[in-house]
Amino acid sequence: LPLHRQVRSFEIDQRVSDFDNDLSLIENDIDRFVELPHEFAAGIFTIDNNESFKAAFLALSNGLEVKRLKADTVINNATIKKESFVVYGGSKSFDVWNKLATELIYPPVFLNYAEKLDATTIKVPRIALVETYFHDMDAGWTRFIFDEYFIPYTVLHPDDLKNTKLKDGYDVLLFPDVNVSQLMDGMYKSDAGAYSMSSYAPEYVVGMGKEGKTKVLEFVDNGGVVLSWGRSTGLFDGMLKIGSEEEQEQFQLPYKDISKSLSKEGLYVAGSLLQIELNQNSPLTYGMPDNIGIFSRGNPVFATSLPKFDMDRRVIATYTDHDLLMSGYIAKPKLLYDKSAMIWLKKGKGQIVLYGFNPQFRASTQASFKLLFNGLFLGGG
Predict the structure, then answer these.
(1) Domain boundaries, position 67
(2) In which element (H, E) is residue 137 found?
(3) pTM, two decimal places
(4) Is 27 domain-assigned?
(5) Which of 61, 118, 121, 254 would you label with 273, given CA atoms 20 to 30 Å apart?
C-alpha cells in the first residue's frame, strides 16, 4: 500500500529508547482541519498534491474563481510550480473557504494579494461516466473517487449514447474498465466469441451499438475528450467510421494493442505494481514525478504508429527497462520493457487518452490519481 501511494516506508525492527521517550499519549481530539487567516485574498494549492484537485473542484462547484499558474512562480521565497491552482474569494467568501478548510488536510499558500499572478481561468468540465447495467465494479470505484474529490459527473448508460447530443452536454466522456461487448451489445462475450445469456430484463440487455459508437467518435472529432482504460480501450482499436453512409469517413487511430502477442510470447502479470516512466512534457503529467508505480495486469499494451491526416499521438508513459517489478509477480518482464502504458491521441478537434492500467484502481493507487484528474481538465480549460 505505501507503494500504491508513492509513500516511503521504513521497517522498525528494534526498540529505540530515545524514540520511545518522545512518544506521548494523545488524550484530546485532533483538529486536522486547515486554519484560515482572518484576512486573505486567495490561496494557492500546489499541483503536486492530490488534495489540490479536490480543492479546485470544490471551489469551482461553489462558485469561486479558480485559475492555474502559467509558469513557476516565486512566492515568499518559495517556488510554486506552474499549473498549481489559485482559488480566489479569500476572506470575502468565508463560508465557501470554510467548506474547503473542513475538507482538506494540506494547507494552501495564503496570499494577501492575487491580481499580479499570471494565471489562466478554468471551468468545471462537464463529465459523463459511461456505465453498463452490469453493476460494473470499476465504474463504482470511479464514482467513489469522484464523490470523494467533489468531481461532478453524470452517469450515462451505453444505450443513452445513441440519443444524447454529447457535445452539447459534455466535455469529457469516461469509459472505465469493462468488456467491449457489454458496451456495444449489452452482453458479455468470451474470448472465444460466445455470448453469455443474461438474466436481466430485455430493457437492460442493451448497448450503444454501431450508432452509439459513431456518436462517441463524432463527439471526439468535434472537440470532445474521451478517457478510457483497461478493456474499454478496445472500442478505439482497428478500423473506425464517422459520418453518414453518403459522406462516411473511415480511419484508424495511430496505435494498436499488442498485449495478446506479448501474452503468446510468455508475458504474464498477476495483478502487480509495475514502474512506469512519465513524459514530463504533457499536461497529463502535471505535478507528477518522473517515475511512479501503477497497478497492472499486463494488458492492454500500446504500440503507436505514424499519424495520418487530422490525427496525432504522444506516448505519455512507458514501462521502465529496469526495476520494472515493484511488487507482485511477472513472467518474462523484458517483454514489457519500454512498451507504452499510456498514450494520448488526437482526432479532428478532439482528444482520446488511453490508459493500459486503472489509474484509480480500487481507490488505493493515489500515486496515479493525477493522471486521471489532469485528463479531466483537458475538457475544462
Answers:
(1) 42-121
(2) helix 137-148
(3) 0.92
(4) no
(5) 254
Interatomic CA distance for residues 175 and 157, integer angstroms: 11
Give per-residue burial for 264-299: e unless 16+ CB within 10 Å, then b.
Answer: eeebebeebbbbbbbbeebebbbbbeeebbbbbbbb
Tell the residue number behind the cell numbers 460466445, with chain if given.
Answer: 194
Nearest CA to 368 out of 332, 307, 310, 326 is that of 326
Q: What are phi and psi of 344, to 5 degrees?
A: -115, 135
Q: How far apart (Å, rounded) are the C-alpha atoms in residues 27 and 54?
A: 30
Using CA atoms, how far apart are residues 337 and 51, in angstroms rounded to an integer? 32
In the numeric block, the cell 506516448 is attached to 315
Q: What is the CATH classification number for the domain harbouring 298? A: 3.40.50.880
- Is residue 32 pLDDT above 70, yes or no? no
User: Same domain, yes or no, for 230 and 298?
Assistant: yes
Residues β-bridged to residue 257 = 302
Backbone angles phi and psi of 361, in degrees to 5: -45, 110
Q: Which three cell numbers stand for residue 369?
A: 490519481
Please state, as a whole number, how many other Cβ atoms lie within 10 Å of the Cβ of residue 49. 18
Of 121, 150, 176, the one marking the end of a domain is: 121
Q: Is the pLDDT of residue 191 over 80?
A: no
Distance (Å, whole) CA 167 – CA 18 = 63
Determine what percent of the chain is predicted with pLDDT higher than 90. Answer: 75
CA separation for the pair 82, 106 (Å, rounded): 18
Q: In whole numbers, what is the pLDDT of the chain averaged over residues?
A: 92
3-state secondary structure of 362: helix
Nearest to 356 by CA among 316, 321, 307: 316
Q: What's the number of domains the chain is made of?
A: 2
pLDDT at residue 12 is higher than 90: no
Given 67, 93, 121, the domain boundary residue is 121
Q: Is residue 269 part of a domain?
A: yes
pLDDT digits 0-9 by tens, 67-98? 999 999 999 889 999 999 999 998 889 899 99
- Same-domain status, 245 and 332: yes
